[in-house]
Amino acid sequence: MKYLRQFCIILFVSFLGELLHILLPLPIPASVYGLVLMLAALCTGILKLAHVRETANFLIEIMPVMFIPAAVGLLESWSALQSIWIPVVVITVLTTIFVMAVTGQVTQCMIRRNHHQKEQKEAGNK
What we know:
By secondary structure, the chain is mostly helical. The chain contains 7 helices and no strands.
């Protein structure tokens, strides 16, 4: 029952992202709105990590399986992609490298900030 409740919370936040996508005339995918809403809810304490942790971990674990339909769709669209496959591969590789670099930098920044906050907290306790 715990997993069902956690999954419903995640679905509700995704639904709110869909609503924002419909209401706001910006070229931002609904999933991005949902992720921003989830981040805001977790950062503000509206939603505790314990409320979604197990189901989120499960969804992350099965994420590779979710790419199978997209890969099959690409295979079925090969006739349309055949003439432009080189630019598509180059763009895919470059954007993947870019996303990995930015993600790494943001992660390192957050780790440093967390470490700095812990040091300040420890210095304040002395």
